[in-house]
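Translate structure to sequence.
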């Protein structure tokens, strides 16, 4: 027996009858008739409906169950980061102005005696490379990361720079340490892990009494609205309604929170920290052809945002399926993929002429134990 699932699927994907009709080039009245069983869709419509909702025709007709199991984001796993050393190195170049780091050390955190630092989810130790030259002589650095590749890269860089440091391969949640630290910090970690509040709680445990806990996280909403490519429409570049649904779905399904940057000071208060405060990093990247090192800066941006190659139709379809599994409807997923491919196409066709303004929006939250 045929039991059409059009209404159920349409509501699941947050589409109105008008929106679904527009997508299929039929009237909303036609959609209503299909849903109410007044008429059946033409057989030629079934593949289009199947593609729109990313289900089989059998599932659309009610012959097999509809539910597709949620596929969690794997950005909090070692597998995800094991081949992203180059990605981390490129992105970290664009996050900080050194004069602002110096300002934080000297005038905000008032660090004027040697300190022991624990960097949680350290990657290759980027924060240690920034902080150690500014800290009082005798300060020490320990970096912990679950990626073997990141740890090996950090050890190699620090050795080449002649900087003393200790690196440990471990997940912070299972890391054990007898020592307590003057400063416990993380950079761009909590937005990628599930249950970021639990991770922050673990960070607090490693701090000594009176120790400083620092969390530096990008707010995804700021980042999504913080880019302009000269020659492209700003509103088009910053469209992210579909991403909002993706963020909400991942928060609900796996407690991965893209807005955690705004919540961390409240979590710090809950964990008993004192003198909690927040700042925002002052770095905004402006890249234009007359700059020294323009090609390298542009390539770092292109690589870090995965704009180096247009995707095939097969790859786009795979991405659409993933985005729909994470809360987008078909149109939103298609629009997002089209936007990203449009950026890639523009960059490729304007080599040597591209200029970009890019704001990451790092919220710096800190408090004392």
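Result:
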């Amino acid at each position: 027996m045929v039991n059409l699932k059009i209404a159920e699927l349409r509501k699941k994907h947050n589409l109105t009858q008008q929106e679904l009709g527009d997508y299929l080039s039929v009237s909303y009245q036609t959609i209503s008739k299909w849903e109410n069983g007044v008429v059946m869709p033409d057989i030629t419509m079934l593949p289009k409906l199947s593609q729109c909702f990313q289900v089989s025709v059998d599932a659309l007709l009610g012959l097999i169950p509809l539910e597709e199991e949620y596929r969690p984001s794997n950005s909090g796993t070692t597998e995800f980061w094991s081949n992203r050393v180059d990605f981390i190195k490129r992105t970290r170049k664009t996050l900080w102005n050194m004069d602002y780091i110096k300002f934080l050390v000297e005038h905000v955190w008032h660090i004027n005696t040697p300190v022991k630092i624990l960097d949680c989810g350290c990657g290759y130790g980027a924060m240690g490379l920034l902080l150690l030259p500014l800290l009082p002589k005798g300060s020490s650095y320990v970096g912990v990361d679950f990626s073997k590749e990141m740890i090996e890269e950090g050890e190699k860089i620090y050795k080449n720079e002649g900087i003393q440091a200790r690196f440990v391969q471990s997940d912070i949640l299972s890391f054990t340490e007898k020592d307590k630290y003057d400063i416990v910090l993380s950079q761009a970690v909590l937005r990628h892990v599930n249950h970021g509040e639990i991770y922050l709680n673990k960070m607090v445990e490693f701090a000594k009494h009176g120790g400083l806990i620092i969390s530096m996280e990008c707010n995804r909403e700021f980042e999504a609205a913080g880019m302009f490519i000269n020659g492209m429409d700003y509103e088009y570049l910053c469209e992210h309604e579909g991403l909002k649904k993706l963020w909400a779905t991942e928060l609900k399904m796996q407690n991965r929170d893209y807005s955690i940057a705004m919540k961390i000071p409240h979590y710090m208060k809950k964990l008993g920290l004192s003198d909690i405060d927040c700042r925002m990093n002052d770095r905004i990247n402006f890249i234009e052809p007359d700059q020294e090192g323009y090609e390298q800066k542009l390539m770092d941006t292109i690589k870090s945002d995965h704009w180096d190659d247009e995707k095939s139709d097969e790859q786009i379809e795979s991405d659409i399926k993933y985005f729909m599994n994470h809360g987008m409807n078909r149109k939103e997923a298609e629009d997002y993929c089209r936007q990203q491919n449009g950026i890639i196409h523009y960059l490729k066709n304007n080599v040597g002429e591209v200029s970009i303004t890019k704001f990451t929006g790092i919220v710096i939250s800190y408090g004392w134990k």
